[in-house]
Amino acid sequence: MKKSPPPVHQIELRIVELSELFNSMDPTPFHHRDLDIDAQEFLESWALEFPQGSHFRIIVHIEKMPQEDPTPLVAEAIHNYFQYKAVLLKRNLRVLLQEGRTSLLIGLCFLALCLLGADALAGFSNNTFLRVLKESLLIGGWVAMWRPMQIFLYDWWPMVRRGRIYSNLGRASVHVAPWKD
User: Fold this and answer.
1) Domain around 20
2) pLDDT of residue 1
3) Number of folded domains in the chain?
4) Average pLDDT, the chain
């Protein structure tokens, strides 16, 4: 059975002039990676509303259209920005998974020590203090596993989803049109 192509969703952005699309704090005259934070958040929030495998068509409506066609500049800026964000997110995911592996190793070692200590105290069931200490060791050992479990069960998959959205925005079809009321 032939797989249907992913849906293409349209995101429309309205600005008064082209400079609103770019970060005014960017010291370079080239708009390679820095979109304005509001424009970036707008595109990203709309993209996150759609299913994960979606592709995008971005239309930027400009009220005060420049003399030259701004489509190549706008397309390059949007593509570069979101491709760069996808690369950064991949790097952050790699760091998170490395942290998860390290936390898992530390957690397992600590859990093993706590279980050994609890086993050693198991013979002293008459002493209340030692029973409390034994239970504390068991609880502490399992608490040490909290962080690796959090990373491997919950933290990584939202990052992967966001990375796919960034990649899809980095390959979006970008068009510029005059703003018409």
Assistant:
1) 8-90+171-178
2) 67
3) 2
4) 91
CB 29 within 8 A of CB 15: no
Both 154 and 137 in one domain: the answer is yes
pLDDT band (50, 70, 90) for residue 180: confident
Q: Please check whether residue 52 is in contact with residue 129, taking contact to mean a CB–CB distance below 8 angstroms.
A: no
Residues 9-21: b if buried by 16+ CB within 10 A, e if exposed: bebebebeebebb
The answer on 78 and 14 residing in a single domain is yes
Q: Among 112, 116, 121, 108, which residue's Cα sits nearest to residue 148?
A: 108
Amino acid at 161: R
For residues 11 and 58, is the Cβ–Cβ distance under 8 A? yes
Same-domain pairing of 109 and 73? no
User: In whole angstroms, what is the distance from residue 40 CA to residue 20 CA?
Assistant: 11
Mark whether 117 and 54 lie in a shared domain. no
110-121: pLDDT as tens digits: 999 999 999 999
Q: Identity (one letter) of the amino acid at 78?
A: I
In a domain, 96, yes or no: yes
